[in-house]
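Budget justification aside, the reviewers requested a transparent look at the raw inputs and outputs of the sequence design task funded under Objective 1. We therefore reproduce one unedited record. The lines immediately below are the structure tokens for a 229-residue chain.
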């Protein structure tokens, strides 16, 4: 267990947020078509008979408590972040073993965060040059209270590449039913959120596609891609 930072306060959050994910992750139509939890089990059982990939797409819904699940238009962009555990060693700044919806207040901050992580992955994979298609999702966060780490002077929590301290903190807060964290981005001026509960997110929509060009060990170009959503 990690010691919580002194004077850790809650901040009221009620705003739109931006999340950027690889475009290869599909929209999960089952979440979109189900109106409520009472319809989920029946429709899932029927569709899984003819769609062998459904389990991989949907993930493990048991990871989300029934009272926290969301359904209807846009729900798949929210729920997918929580029904898929991170692969070993691939967690985020505040999660290692549970799903988290990472987002930013501004698109430029979200781009800076994701270009860093995409470039790091590609360098480790020893890929010389490629283009990656990304999807920009806008959602509404709140009204809810998030634990506020903004302006916290803690080098371990804000380490550029070692997330071990942040992951311990996130696990402790998530176990205490925290809705999530708001914190300063270390990649770009701006704030990010690590959301632990899908129920505090609504109105998620696909905005557009971006193409990240990777060469010379870094993302050298980010362009909007013109194509249907």
């Amino acid at each position: 267990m990690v010691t919580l930072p002194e004077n850790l306060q809650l901040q009221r959050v009620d705003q739109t947020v931006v999340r950027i994910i690889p475009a290869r992750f599909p929209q999960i139509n089952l979440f979109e078509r189900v109106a409520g939890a009472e319809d989920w089990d029946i429709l899932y059982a029927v569709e899984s008979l003819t769609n062998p990939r459904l389990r991989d797409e949907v993930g493990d819904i048991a990871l989300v408590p029934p009272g926290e699940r969301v359904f209807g238009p846009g729900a798949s962009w929210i729920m997918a972040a929580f029904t898929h555990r991170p692969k070993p060693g691939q967690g985020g700044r505040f999660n290692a073993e549970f799903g988290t919806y990472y987002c930013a207040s501004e698109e430029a901050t979200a781009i800076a965060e994701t270009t860093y992580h995409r470039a790091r992955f590609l360098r480790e994979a020893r890929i010389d040059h490629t283009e990656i298609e990304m999807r920009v999702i806008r959602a509404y966060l709140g009204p809810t209270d998030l634990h506020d780490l903004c302006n916290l002077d803690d080098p371990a929590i804000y380490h550029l590449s070692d997330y071990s301290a942040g992951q311990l903190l996130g696990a402790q807060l998530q176990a205490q039913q925290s809705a999530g964290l708001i914190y300063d981005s270390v990649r770009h001026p701006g704030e990010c959120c690590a959301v632990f509960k899908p129920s505090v997110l609504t109105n998620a929509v696909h905005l557009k596609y971006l193409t990240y060009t990777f060469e010379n060990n870094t993302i050298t170009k980010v362009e909007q891609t013109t194509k249907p959503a």
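The two ends are 43 Å apart (CA to CA). Strands lie at 9-22, 101-104, 129-148, 180-184, 191-195, 201-215, 218-225. Computational costs for records of this kind are itemized in the attached budget.
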